[in-house]
Structure formats: structure tokens, C-alpha cells
Amino acid sequence: MDLLNMRVLVTGSKGFIGKNLKVHLNECPGVIVTTFDRGDDLARLKELLCGADCVVHLAGENRPDEPAAFDEVNAGLTSAVCDEIQNIIESAGRQIPILLASSTQATQDNPYGRSKLAAEEVLQRLAESTENPCLVFRLPGVFGKWCRPHYNSVVATFCHQLARDLPIQVNNPAAQIKLVYVDDVIRSMLAALVSPAPGFTRVDSQPEYEVTLAELARQIEAFASSPTSLITEHVGEGFVRALYATYVSYLPNQKFSYPVTQHADSRGVFVEMLKTKDSGQFSYFTAHPGITRGGHYHHTKTEKFLVVKGQALFRFRHIITDEVVKIQTSADTPEVVDTIPGWSHDITNVGQDEMIVMLWANENFDPDNPDTVASEV
Q1: pLDDT tens digit string along 281-293?
Q2: 112 is catalytic
Q3: In a domain, 337, yes or no
Q4: Residue 340 sits in which domain range?
Q5: DSSP class per residue in 54-113
Q6: Which of 49, 75, 220, 257 minimizes the number of CB atoms within 10 Å of its CB?
């Protein structure tokens, strides 16, 4: 993303999207960010705009005490910004691209929707009269870190409550909501600012997700139960990835960590860390010097071992042919050792210190069907 040395004015920088945008902009080399926020003197706008290369206009009212504030801020402040841009164009011949965060509610006949539509129309008039680049993002519900709960985001409210073991209320489980993730919104905005087209442009932030309130609640509840069940959701991509990142951002400080069960005996300890729904589980174990662990085979289950401390001797015996294989590994030269169905196997600490071994099994342990048969190597 090339925004090198741009001067970006952000209105509403203390809001949810504004906080995220500022962080991303501060990561761009040479970008200078100035801000105009609630309570700032309107007279500062001229000075700020004169020093800006572009404007990201996020300031707006969502739930004011008085309905008149919708027009005063959503439409009125937008008019003030655009009027000043037009003055700069006419006096200095310099265009200042402006990007407006609007709402899909601009199509609805309510005070908020009408005020957002009015703000869009202000940009459209500026674009038509000056060809100044004017971009409108009509956003559905935006979710992500730093969004205020109990305000205008059901995602933020559900995450905040469940992260604190508090109840949530789902009034209409079948209701469908459309959502975009704040990082995707910011990415789209920054891309639009790199080379904005002249005139008026409406931009969609992608990807857009659609989910029922019941599905949303169930997914966040599953995140909340993970420290107890150790089962992780499919958090590697798409909506669930974004939602999980959002959920953990609402965890109170005391929940940044959680205990797991340690099984200890004379050989060492065994600790399960994480389980997946369809790709097995992760754990680790220790062994004192001279201790051998294992001595069994599996019909179908497979495992991967990695010694992260100490020295180990792995032994394998084919349960039919009695063929024997020995592999010695050390934390000094990391090496993954696979267990093979039909081969009995064990692991011995052949070093002088405690041995620590990471373990992945391709399936979660099922005490009713352990697929583990004792058999000496």
C-alpha cells in the first residue's frame, strides 16, 4: 500500500473505525495523520484541510440524545468539510480527495438513514461541481477490536458479555444481519486512497458476511467455552477468523491466560493444550533421565513428536514381522518423528536432564475407543 508521505486528516478518529484506521495509517512510512474530533473547534477545519492531502470522514452520530443531532453532525459537519474543500479548490486549485464512511441505512426512511443519505449527497454535489475525488463507503454492521459494546454493534455486545461469563439476549434468533470486518474496511479504504478516481464513487467493502443472530451467538459461545473444552473452532480463515480475533480482544486482563490439567506420575507429566474438531490435538509430556514412555501401537491413529528439550531414543517394532527401527533425536537438531500404524513404539530419555516433547495426534483422545494397544518394543 503506497501512501508514502501523504498527510491524512481523519475526522472521528476516537471512534471504533477511527482508532483502527489511525493505527494502520501510523504503520505507513511517512504518513502524517491529523485529526478532528468531537468537541474540536469548527474553526480548526480550514487549517487542518489546508494541510491535508486527503480526508477520511468518519465523524458521525449513531445514537444522539436529540434527533436533530443526526442532521447537525452527519449532514452538517459533512457540508462544512466539503464547503472548505471547495474553497481550497477554487482558491488554490488543489483537490483534496475525501472518503466518507456512510451506512447501508442510507436507504432507510429513519432519522439516521436520512442524515447519512444527506451526507452522501453533499459529497456528490462537490464531485459534480469540481470533479474532486469523493468516495462513499456504504457500510453494514462493522465488527472488530475496540468497538463499543451496548451501543450499536451486537457483535461487540455478545463478545463483551460472553468474555465475562455474562448472559446475552437474542430477541430474534432467525434475524439475518450483514457484517464487515474492520480490518477489511480499513484495507479497502487505504486502497481507495492510493489512487482515487475523479468525481463521485461508491465503494463496497469486501468480503461481506451474512449470519443469523442465533448462529452468531452460538459461534461466540463456542469461543468462550474453548478454555474449558480445549476445542478450538476453525479460526484460520474467513468470518470465523475475524470473529475469533474480535472475541479475544474483549477478554478481560485476568482471562489472558487459563489453567490446563496436568497429569503427573513418576515418569514425568502429560498436558493437553489444544484440541481441534477434525484435525486432532496438541499436547506435551516430560520424562526424567532414563525413563521410557509409550510401549504400544495404534491401528489407525498417527502422531508426530518433536523433542524441544533433551535427547530421545525412539524405538519402533513392526507387530507382525518384528522389524525394529531406532531413531535418536535431540532438541539441538529439531526433527519430527512420526508414529506408524501397526508399529509398536516407545521413547526413552537418553540425556542427563529432563526431556520435554511436543506431541500432535491426528484425532482427539476418545476413552471409549482409544486405539492404543499395549505392546513392548
Answers
A1: 999 999 999 999 9
A2: yes
A3: yes
A4: 262-374
A5: EEEE----SS-SSTHHIIIIIIIIHHHHHHHHHHHHHHH-----EEEEEEGGGGSSSHHH
A6: 257
